[in-house]
Amino acid sequence: xxxxxxxxxxxxxxxxxxxxxxxxxxxxxxxxxxLLAVPGRGVDKQDCLAARVQARYPxxxxxxxxxxxxxxxxxMARGAAAQRELSKxxxxxxxxxxxIAVVAGRLDVPSEEWGIIDMPIVADWPxxxxxIVDRIHGKPSLTRWRVLGVDETGxxxxxxxxxxxxxxxxxxxxxxxxxxxxxxxxxxAPPDVQARAGRLLLHAWSLRFAHPLTGDALAFESPxxx
Length: 226
Known about the structure:
16% of the residues lie in helices and 31% in strands. By secondary structure, it is of the alpha+beta class. The protein has one domain (8-221): Pseudouridine synthase (2-Layer Sandwich), CATH 3.30.2350. Strands 1, 2, 3, 4, 5, 6, 9, 10, 11 and 12 form a ten-stranded mixed beta sheet that branches. Strands 7-8 form a two-stranded antiparallel sheet. It is globular and about 45 Å long. Residues 2-14 have low confidence and may be disordered.
């Protein structure tokens, strides 16, 4: 298993965002780690993927988000009609998103090719924006996962993740609950696991959906930079 540092992410966050795909209906972007997907609160949090893209494509509208620390593929709609159709596709779970992550420890291969994490998630209100698993009050949250490889020392496992639902911080919370937090996770990993990577080792590498205008199947891939 390869686990390379991704120092170039910080440099990428300071440069213009070139679309991986662009037409009159949608844009597919590759967000670097360390860049907000949408503006945050405060004047110091206005630089984000959406703002940079809208400077070049004024009709670009947000459809979904990635955490600031997460890198990888995002789609934006061009115009309100396309935004409505893409939003419907996400709500209907007609968009397939897959991620690569490196987690702490040896994660055993599931009995089937893909394992399932079924743990309801709710906001941890006293410690927002953190989320927690709450089997009584949490919203249904489902993640598919499989092992891609374990490093030679057994100290880390490379996994592929597919969120079936789209809760905030879902992948990070689910893996923490399994006892295998993602390396570099400043929110959910203990200090020693945070320190093992210079960034969150979570990357949205694959995005598949139907074009909202033509219905054609679209598939995009972005290799993990770690």
